[in-house]
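To the wet lab folks,

You asked to see what we're planning to order before we commit. Fair enough. Below is the target structure as tokens, and below that is the sequence we designed to fit it. If anything looks off to you, flag it before the synthesis order goes out.
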């Protein structure tokens, strides 16, 4: 018929279907599976060993699930395991770690966030030199400054005290945290800062009312880094905390390395799991925000 355009054949649309068993997928998933097994097997052995009695452990099959589940090793690790001269379990070290962790984490993050904000938007004369010196502190080997810090804390009257170990963790956490906050705030559009200045906002108003509400991801990154680093610390705890303030990691070492009596591997495994439980829980709860904070500029220069 006149005026009718012939219909053209329409081919298949959409992306080309991908093969599930391609070489690329096999290699990628194979490597990921091997890595996952590598990390999961030790955790599995620790869990099943902590749920076995000593007679079953002596049978020698570390991979076999427990024939009879018992939580006595967990109770003993928490309440009555010997951590030196004291046999009060890990509960004392747990509360010591909490007393060290909370002030060290929040003070260091509070100071570092303000430092990063100031170095990003309120540059002053010599700010780059100050930032370089601050970062230098993050790369000084801890072994170099053990004795000077002992003398400093002694002169301040803080050696072998809770305040002393909190001060140590606060100071050592600030360089890397300042770098993270500075890089994150540097990714914020400068126009936003200038508009706030035009509206009459000052230093603290811009920080508290504009930047803080949009900085949750980087605060989660800093929180996870500090919780993991401080909770897992053994080096500073054994040197500066004092015997009355030993954190959980130091008491775990005393339990595992004890040479008196029978070697209770189930108690050792339960104590190890109890010690690492808090960082694992924190990471699993806020893991998505951690990745989001890194991707949003936590490691951008």
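Sequence we intend to order:
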């Amino acid at each position: 018929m006149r005026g009718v355009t012939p219909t053209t054949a329409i081919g298949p649309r959409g992306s080309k279907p991908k093969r599930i068993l391609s070489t690329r997928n096999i290699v990628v998933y194979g490597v990921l599976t091997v890595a996952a097994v590598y990390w999961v097997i030790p955790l599995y052995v620790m869990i099943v060993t902590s749920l076995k009695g000593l007679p079953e452990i002596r049978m020698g099959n570390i991979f076999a699930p427990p024939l009879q589940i018992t939580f006595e090793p967990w109770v003993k690790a928490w309440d009555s395991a010997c951590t030196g001269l004291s046999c009060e379990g890990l509960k004392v070290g747990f509360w010591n770690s909490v007393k060290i962790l909370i002030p060290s984490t929040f003070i260091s993050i509070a100071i570092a966030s303000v430092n990063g904000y100031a170095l990003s938007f309120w540059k002053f004369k010599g700010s780059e030199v100050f930032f370089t010196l601050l970062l230098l502190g993050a790369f000084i080997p801890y072994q170099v400054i053990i004795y000077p810090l002992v003398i400093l804390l002694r002169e301040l009257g803080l050696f072998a005290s809770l305040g002393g170990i909190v001060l140590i963790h606060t100071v050592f956490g600030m360089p890397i945290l300042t770098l993270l906050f500075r890089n994150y705030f540097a990714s914020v559009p400068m126009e936003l800062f200038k508009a706030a200045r035009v509206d009459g906002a000052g230093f603290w108003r811009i920080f508290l009312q504009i930047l803080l509400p949009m900085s949750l991801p980087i605060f989660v990154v800093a929180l996870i880094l500090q919780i993991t680093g401080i909770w897992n610390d053994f080096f500073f705890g054994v040197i500066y905390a004092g015997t009355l303030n030993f954190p959980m990691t130091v008491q775990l070492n005393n339990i595992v390395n004890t040479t008196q009596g029978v070697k209770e591997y189930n108690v050792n495994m339960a104590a190890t799991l109890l010690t690492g439980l808090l960082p694992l829980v924190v990471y699993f709860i806020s893991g998505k925000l951690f990745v989001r904070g890194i991707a949003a500029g936590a490691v951008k220069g």
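Structural context that might help your review: The chain has two domains: 23-70, 93-245+268-298. The chain has a mean pLDDT of 86.

Thanks,
Computational group
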